[in-house]
Design brief:
2 copies of one chain form a homodimer. Chain A is an alpha/beta fold and about 270 residues long. The first copy, chain A, has one domain: Aldolase class I (TIM Barrel). Helices cover about 45% and strands about 15% of the residues of chain A. Chain A contains 12 helices and 10 strands. In chain A, the strands form 2 sheets. Chain A has an 8-stranded parallel barrel with strand order 1-2-3-4-5-8-9-10, surrounded by 6 helices. The first copy, chain A, has a two-stranded antiparallel ribbon with strand order 6-7. In chain A, a hairpin with a 2-residue loop joins β6 and β7. In chain A, α2 packs across α12. The longest helix of chain A is centred in the last third of the chain and has 22 residues. Chain A is globular and about 55 Å long. The relative contact order of chain A is 0.16. Chains A and B meet through α3, α4, β3, α5 and α6 of A and α3, α4, β3, α5 and α6 of B.
Chain lengths: ~270, ~270
């Protein structure tokens, strides 16, 4: 997916919502557990209900992997089911030495046909570059994450800047706003402006809105750029809005609520 | 696997060799491509041939994942096939927010029954701690890796130390030499002593010996501690020693050669 195609979808749907698919057998509606493939059936219903309001879906590979080969098959089916106009972000946080990263890239970009993959920066250039060689595919690099542990290393001072700012600066030598975006947590709103000033033209994938306490208005105020530049992810608040037979309707209502909030912002962007 | 059990194996086999399982369909002997599960058949033959000389096996998940659900099934079979006395290190470089890391830990420690998992430190404490909650299971945390990109962030100066030294110091608050070891690349031998001085009692998993240019004698000189404290990994030099029908015998010869080099060192450790 190109950046232009993503922006077109944002404009069309008046939304920059990304729905996180974290299917947990302990949390999904019990009636789905009787089906042959509960992970897929759950995700399918969530995708059907929310795709008119979302421009991206983010399957979290851990929730599939923990069921082994069968879970991996459910992940493949889920990714294949997501409508083509939506960006598929495989949330796998991969990253390894060059030839291994190439295999991970093939896994998610060729085999699964995902549009984007979350990647960890610790191993540096040659762990990230292989993912950037795939046409119309995206690296979503961890910059400033939304968890408590982010402060352990990401906020460490390196030559008068934070480590995450070095990650932002260095990685812009590897990719461009056409194939690289950043994970920027919404839980430390005061930092979002710092990230934006380091990477004015890049898209950010922003987790942590909703269940993790982040606030959409603050994210837009400090994080948006003229082209939007944001994909705001919500997982639990949408997919677990209900665990009854009405779960898909409840998810739809939550997604619609977020889309409605986003709509007025989208109209003000220069798209 | 406990640390005592690992040391017992090192003593018994006079070896601290870890064989890396990176099965690449472009490199494995062509006659195996006719079998139903070439990835597994290749790994099985390598395990059969080398396990008398190795105390650990390290399947690299990327080489299995790139074949999708079928590859994942081959990984499960491969891990299940490794003799119980050998440590299984799943080289997956996972790491995510807490509840997601818990799912990754379940995947590799419960579902697959691996003994250890490589983990990336960038997201900090709550991304690593979930892996340390599993009894007799190990985190192998990336500290100083063997690739060129290691210098991008790992060698950055943070308050007068390198980032990798902060990772070593901070993570010792989370785990102990009984459940935590470190990835320490052999390509920068002069750094191995620095890592050892930061973590005197911990085991290191050392990649980069052989194909990547590292030297065993240097690694032992600067990296060993009284209890050995080293698992030296070799992947390509062993598993791709030949791609003919004699590949297993060739792998055995290479593993034996490394074990013979290691033997004299093991006799000098205090085991």
């Amino acid at each position: 997916m190109t950046k232009a195609a993503l922006i077109e979808q944002i404009k069309l749907k008046e939304s920059f919502l990304c729905v996180g698919l974290d299917p947990d057998l302990d949390k999904i509606p019990p009636h789905l557990l009787q089906t042959e493939d509960p992970l897929f059936e759950f995700c399918k219903a969530i995708i059907d209900a929310t795709h008119p309001y979302a421009v991206a879906f983010k399957p979290n590979t851990a929730f599939f992997e923990c069921h082994g080969a069968a879970g991996w098959a459910s992940l493949e089916k889920t990714i294949a089911y997501i409508p083509k106009e939506c960006m598929v972000i495989a949330d796998a946080k991969r990253g390894d030495i060059g030839n291994t990263s190439t295999y991970y890239a093939k896994t998610f970009f060729d085999h699964m046909n995902a549009d984007a993959l979350t990647v960890a920066p610790y191993m540096g250039s040659d762990s990230v570059l292989p993912f950037l060689q795939f046409k119309n595919k995206w690296v979503v690099l961890l910059a400033l994450t939304s968890n408590e542990g982010a402060k352990d290393f990401q906020l460490s001072a390196v030559n008068g800047k934070s480590l995450f700012e070095h990650v932002l600066e260095k990685s812009q030598e590897w990719g461009s706003p056409e194939n690289l975006m950043y994970v920027v947590g919404a839980t430390r709103a005061e930092d979002i402006a710092r990230v934006r000033s380091c990477a004015p033209d890049y898209f950010f994938l922003v987790p942590g809105v909703g269940a993790q306490g982040g606030d959409l208005e603050t994210v837009v105020k400090y994080g948006a750029n003229a082209e939007c530049g944001l994909l705001v992810n919500s997982s639990r608040a949408i997919i677990y809005a209900s665990n009854g037979v009405d779960f898909a309707q409840a998810a739809k209502n939550e997604a619609l609520k977020m889309q409605a909030q986003m709509s007025s912002h989208v109209q003000r962007f220069n798209l």
